[in-house]
């Protein structure tokens, strides 16, 4: 007779996720080109001390790692929403045109509105992300045949390539290649408290709203017919969730640039721990996405110190094999 597997209560999983996030944050603050101590970190967090090391922690490393946490959580939640609503195991903001649309918007802002503040750049990214996603769904819905996950990804690849080409063309024509490439590389370098104050509230509110609506995502992940049978207002709920994905992705690009694969990998990994109920997937994705980005940034700052390896490159090295594995298994092996 088969023994029943012991089910770990969800509260314990949340506590474990929070503990991992705290440990990752401490590691990210301690390790880098200039190693610091736990005492330095404690003084930076709890006192007004102003030595060079503590100032570097407080003004350079801390906003950077908070940005990593916010963007990791935002992209993971965005990916979870997209995978649930579209029932597409390959859905990811970076693969379905949102990140490339936001990136193009940044290039346009640099050319036509060079003095725009952080809030203005973020709003432009919202519109760019919405444009990218809209183009993908229009293109993937065109013609005959069923709307398959692979078809959506192919449309996303085409739209992303087109929007990146537009962005590159703008940057070359107006000689802003260096500025645009800083965003395209997906860098956390130079993140300031001012940027966080502008963009963090959007990500926090969007993340909380996504967790609140997680039950609706679970219902939508079953089928539209089931959702209708349960009295769901499909058009309204899908519109709200689409807006949340645009807000979270646009804010992430405005903060750290274009980073792909986080929204693909994290929800799949979390489903291995939490199952298929998005009431559990969403909050765990917040912790897992934030922890993953912290680890990726720490690795980027340490493997070739004092030089930095772009965090987007590190994530791509992990994400591309993962993407190919999900394609090969049809999205079922890790769900």
CATH homolog superfamily: ABC transporter involved in vitamin B12 uptake, BtuC
User: Structural class of the secondary elements?
Assistant: mainly alpha
Total beta-strand segments: 0
Low-pLDDT residue spans: none
Number of domains: 1
Reading off the top of the CATH hierarchy, the class is best stated as: Mainly Alpha
**Percentage of residues assigned to helices:** over 70%
Approximately how much beta-strand content do the residues carry?
Answer: under 5%
What does this structure look like?
It contains 14 helices and no strands. With 335 residues, it is mostly helical. It has a single domain (13-329), classed as ABC transporter involved in vitamin B12 uptake, BtuC (Orthogonal Bundle), CATH 1.10.3470.10.
Concise description?
The protein contains 14 helices and no strands. It has helices at 10-30, 38-46, 52-86, 98-112, 118-141, 149-173, 177-184, 193-212, 214-222, 224-229, 234-256, 262-274, 278-302, 311-329.
């Amino acid at each position: 007779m088969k023994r029943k597997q012991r089910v770990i209560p969800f509260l314990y999983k949340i506590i474990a996720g929070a503990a991992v996030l705290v440990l990752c944050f401490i590691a990210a603050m301690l390790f880098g080109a200039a190693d610091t101590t736990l005492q330095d970190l404690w003084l930076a967090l709890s006192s007004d001390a102003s030595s060079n090391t503590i100032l570097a922690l407080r003004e350079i490393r801390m906003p950077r790692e908070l940005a990593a946490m916010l963007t990791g959580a935002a992209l993971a939640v965005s990916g979870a929403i997209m995978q649930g609503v579209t029932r597409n195991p390959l859905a990811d903001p970076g693969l379905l045109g949102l990140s490339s649309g936001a990136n193009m918007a940044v290039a346009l802002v640099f050319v036509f509105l060079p003095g725009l503040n952080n809030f203005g750049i973020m709003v432009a990214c919202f519109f760019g992300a919405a444009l990218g996603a809209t183009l993908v769904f229009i293109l993937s819905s065109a013609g005959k045949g069923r709307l398959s996950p692979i078809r959506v990804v192919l449309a996303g690849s085409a739209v992303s390539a087109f929007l990146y080409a537009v962005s590159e063309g703008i940057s070359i024509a107006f000689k802003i290649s260096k500025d645009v490439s800083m965003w395209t590389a997906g860098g956390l370098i130079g993140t300031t408290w001012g940027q966080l104050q502008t963009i963090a509230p959007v990500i926090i509110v969007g993340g909380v709203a996504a967790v609140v609506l997680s039950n609706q995502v679970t219902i939508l992940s079953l089928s539209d017919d089931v959702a209708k049978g349960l009295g769901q207002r499909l058009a309204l709920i899908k519109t709200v969730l689409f807006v949340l994905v645009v807000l979270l992705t646009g804010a992430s690009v405005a903060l750290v640039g274009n980073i792909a694969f986080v929204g693909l990998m994290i929800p799949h990994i979390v489903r291995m721990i939490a199952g298929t109920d998005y009431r559990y997937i969403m909050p765990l994705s917040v912790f897992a996405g934030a922890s993953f980005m912290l680890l990726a940034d720490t690795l980027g700052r340490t493997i070739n110190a004092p030089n930095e390896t772009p965090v987007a490159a590190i994530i791509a090295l992990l994400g591309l094999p993962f993407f190919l594995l999900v394609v090969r298994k049809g999205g079922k092996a890790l769900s």
